[in-house]
Amino acid sequence: MIQDQVYLSLVAPCYNEEMALPQFYADTVKIGESINKPFELVFIDDGSKDATLKILRQMAHNDARIHYISFSRNFGKEAAMLAGLQAARGTYIAVLDADGQDPPSLIPQMLEAVESGEYDCAGTRRINRTGEPPVRSFFARRFYRIMRKITGIDIIDGARDFRLMNRRYMDALLALPERNRFSKGIFPWIGFNTKWFEYENIARTAGGTKWSFWKLAAYSLDGMTAFSSKPIAIVSALGMALFMVALAIIIFIIIRKLAYGDPVAGWASTICIILFCSGIQLFTTGILGQYIAKTYTETKQRPHYIIREAQ
Ligand code: UDP
Ligand code: MG
């Protein structure tokens, strides 16, 4: 069967990408054809609400190299990438965004690096963040710094999900069963040799980013708790330190009471201490809650995604 001979699979998650798809299709097919080996395009419609699925059906109908998987609802990009990788049949597999921000023109070089056998994966990173709001860039940089510190994994600043890998690398990736998939951490965690390709940031060809500032903030907190238990250690240390301070204050108060009696004063400071301590406690409980919630979703063992239709 011809399908067994797929050499390169190009996997693209799509969520409301009707505007970007036609251009993306034209670009990737051109690249696929340029390598002179059988290739396939695997699209994942992540519960889009626009005409994405209609376009994909049409494309798959007209071109046998196109396959698509359509989810029953929006499951998020991580789930979409996972589905695409599981469906990909190529000897080499690349993942790239459908919005034109991951230049397919890099694929031949990336393929060459992995084909050589010296690398198992070719990754890409943006060397600048033009076209992005400065506040977002600022927080993004801090995020990478903190992540590297607390996870101890070399999470590379500006690394994209745009990657090309061999089977060995992909099998390792798919062997991780977790529901809370945080690719930015999973890729470096599995190890192997990765060759990095750098490129200038490219603005989306069409449509808008699916990430609001708050969505990104939630995502970074999620990533930290998904990949490290350091936050628990940090809040325990904080609790310990507060306890020490409280102990010192208690001793001080007892001595003062014994020496000077009890002048009724210090209402403001009492309130401050109560507010401060209850704030810390809530914060700490929240962090613990994050881990419990994660354990909860893992133990339910639900599927990562549900497919409504595929071809
Ligand atoms: N995407 C997806 N599911 C989602 C959100 C995004 O499959 O819930 C896809 C989207 O169609 C795009 C890629 O993931 O191909 C990256 O999304 P986006 O461009 O919004 O993110 P950014 O490039 O701004 O990081
Ligand atoms: Mg994008």
The CATH class assignment of the largest domain is Alpha Beta
Number of DSSP helical runs: 10
Measure the end-to-end span.
16 Å
**Would you report the number of β strands?**
8
- CATH fold annotation of the largest domain: Spore Coat Polysaccharide Biosynthesis Protein SpsA, Chain A
- General shape: elongated
What's the alpha carbon Rg, rounded to whole Å? Answer: 25 Å
Class of secondary structure makeup: alpha/beta
Q: What helical percentage do the residues reach?
A: 40-55%
In round numbers, the mean pLDDT is: 86
Bound molecules: uridine-5'-diphosphate, magnesium ion
Q: Give the strand order, joined by hyphens, for the main sheet.
A: 7-5-6-4-1-2-3-8
Give a quick account of the main beta sheet: strands, pairing sense, barrel closure.
8 strands, mixed
Folded structure, characterized:
The protein is α/β, with parallel strands linked by helices. The protein folds into two domains: 3-220, Spore Coat Polysaccharide Biosynthesis Protein SpsA, Chain A (Alpha-Beta Complex); 230-300. It has ten helices and eight strands. It has helices at residues 21-34, 52-62, 77-87, 107-115, 134-151, 167-174, 183-190, 213-227, 230-260, 267-300, and strands at 8-14, 39-45, 66-71, 92-95, 121-126, 159-166, 194-199, 307-310. It has an eight-stranded mixed beta sheet with strand order 7-5-6-4-1-2-3-8, sandwiched between helices. The chain is elongated, with a radius of gyration of 25 Å. Bound molecules: uridine-5'-diphosphate (UDP) and magnesium ion. Magnesium ion is lined by residues 97, 99, 101, 204, 209. Uridine-5'-diphosphate binds at residues 13-15, 17, 46, 74, 76-77, 80, 97-99, 101, 209-211.
